[in-house]
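Hi again,

Forgot to attach this to my earlier email, sorry! This is the prediction with magnesium ion bound. I've pasted everything inline since the attachment limit keeps bouncing my files.
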Amino acid sequence: MTITIALSKGRIFEETMPLLNAAGITALEDPESSRKLILTTNRADVRLIIVRASDVPTYVQYGAADLGVAGKDVLEEHGGTGLYQPLDMNIARCRMMVAVRDDFDYESAVRQGARLRVATKYVQTARAHFAAKGVHVDLIKLYGSMELAPLVGLSDAIVDLVSSGNTLKANHLKAVEHIADISSRLIVNQAALKLKHDVIQPMLDAFKLAIRK
Ligand code: ATP
Ligand code: MG
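Structure tokens for the complex follow:
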């Protein structure tokens, strides 16, 4: 019985490795230097697959991967159907924020009931946030570099992830609202959890002990 774990390259892969190691799993290849999308581990029954961050829930939902690690941002957009989310891994921490140009008076625009143009990769999250506030928005879907949109007049605001705030600052933007704290979660295919319980449960227990609070 093989266990397949879906991870994305970059910070999620790097920050998940210590937790996998704590469960006795070591990657034998590095996705940054290897072009392989299926990586072997020290355990013959465990393999890692490398997918786009936003595709991790899809692989797990359909059972192509048994486990995965995905940001709460990605899970909110996906909807979480068919996924069991037993653990907050407390890695890849950042915040979902609304940001505008530093010369834009967001408070009065909202107070005056202006219709805001908001560019974001996180359309579901943004829609829910502004609907709850009763702010009318036109959402513009982007796939990256959201910071550019207000600078060239594509939008009044963006909804994006912020950690240090340096990217905002470098582009003369300011954060004006905090939508949610984000971290990455372990996700498990619900059928796999039942069928492969004897292998998966000890992994969950080991992750739980190794997660930094
Ligand atoms: P892709 O590059 O494939 O479009 P992505 O940009 O979402 O995807 P990453 O930048 O590796 O991929 O981000 C993966 C996850 O890490 C995100 O879903 C989010 O949960 C988290 N994350 C994103 N940006 C930051 C950040 N600046 N600091 C900490 N965590 C972050
Ligand atoms: Mg990125």
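The longest strand covers residues 173-182. The two ends are 32 Å apart (CA to CA).

That should be everything now.

G.
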